[in-house]
Structure formats: C-alpha cells, structure tokens
C-alpha cells in the first residue's frame, strides 16, 4: 500500500536526537531525498528524487531502466537516501537501504501517479492513468524498492541573527537500526 502525502511534514526536535519511531515518521511525512549509490570509480553518485513510502516502510523510487540508479541497483543493491526537510532550518535523515528493481507495470504506474501527486501537491485523477501508462512504457520505467535497515539523523540548526553570543548546540547522532524500538 502506497502512503498518501502527509498533510504536514514531521518537524524534527531541536533539543535532542530523534527517536527511532520519529525517524520513521520523518521519512513517511516527507517526499524528496538525495538518492545515492556507489560507483566503481569516483565518488558516490547522487540525484534528487521524489520517493513514495509504503505501509511496510519501504521507499519506492521511479526511474528509467537505462539510468545509472537502476543499473547500479541491479549490480550492487546498496543505496542511501538523504531525506530532506523542505522547511527552514533544514533537518535531514540519512536512510541506508537494500534495493531491488521492480518491473511490474501496475506498480510502476501506481508509483508514477503517486510521484506526480507529490510534485503537484494533489493526487492525479484516474483519467491521467492511460497517459502515465503510455509514458511509463515509452520511457521504460522501473521502480527501485528500497528496504531501510538503518538511519542517521541530523537536527535542524541555524543562527537567526549574527549574534555570536548566542549558543548553537550540536550533538552527535549515530546509526540506528530502522526497526529499533524507542528507548524507555
């Protein structure tokens, strides 16, 4: 089940690290990320994409089968998604995932329709499905299914005025298993 776009993005706490359940909620409530993957040579490849969360906490990304993202996932299967908060000051959550390629045409079209809804801020009507289906075939679209296994959070930080006497706090986050329970 594809989750709808949240009516309000999750706001990360500014006084502490996010709990595991808050990290998952942050990902469910946002829509854009920097999609990263390893390259054989050079540094990691990165591109900004829309993603669709599912009811089972998978993250789905639409891409063309001939693009680097799809080719590398078939070869490697390890990706990272840096989920972006769209509000200032920015917070982000790095998600590490195992990824596979899905070619099921209905799923591909469902994800493309959901992405269009996230891009525009409102769902596409059913009358758009034939056009999206034709586009998915013409562009040879696939879905990258990302199964998160860990996350790393960065809190929002910002100086609201140039007053060096104000203290900006920082702390160290760490990798947290995706399915971890919140501490008691």
From TrEMBL:
Domain of life: Bacteria
Chain positions covered by the region annotation Disordered: 1-23
Protein name: Pyridoxamine 5'-phosphate oxidase N-terminal domain-containing protein
Pfam families named in the record: PNPOx_N (PF01243)
Compositionally biased residues, Basic and acidic residues: 14-23
Gene3D superfamilies per the UniProt record, alphabetical: Electron Transport, Fmn-binding Protein, Chain A (2.30.110.10)
Limits of the Pyridoxamine 5'-phosphate oxidase N-terminal domain: 22-145
């Amino acid at each position: 089940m594809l989750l709808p776009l949240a009516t309000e993005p999750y706001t990360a706490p500014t006084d502490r690290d996010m709990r595991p359940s808050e990290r998952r909620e942050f990902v469910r409530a946002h829509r854009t990320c920097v999609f990263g993957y390893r390259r054989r040579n050079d540094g990691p490849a990165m591109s900004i994409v829309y993603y669709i969360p599912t009811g089972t906490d998978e993250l789905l990304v639409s891409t063309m089968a001939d693009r680097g993202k799809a080719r590398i996932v078939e070869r490697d299967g390890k990706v990272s998604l840096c989920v972006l908060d769209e509000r200032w000051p920015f917070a982000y959550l790095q998600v590490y995932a195992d990824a596979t390629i899905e070619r099921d045409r209905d799923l591909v079209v469902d994800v493309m329709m959901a992405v269009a809804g996230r891009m525009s801020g409102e769902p596409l009507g059913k009358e758009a499905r034939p056009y999206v289906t034709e586009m998915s075939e013409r562009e040879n679209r696939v879905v990258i299914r990302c199964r998160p296994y860990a996350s790393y959070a960065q809190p929002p930080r910002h100086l609201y005025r140039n007053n060096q006497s104000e203290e900006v706090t920082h702390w160290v986050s760490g990798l947290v298993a995706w399915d971890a329970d919140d501490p008691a």
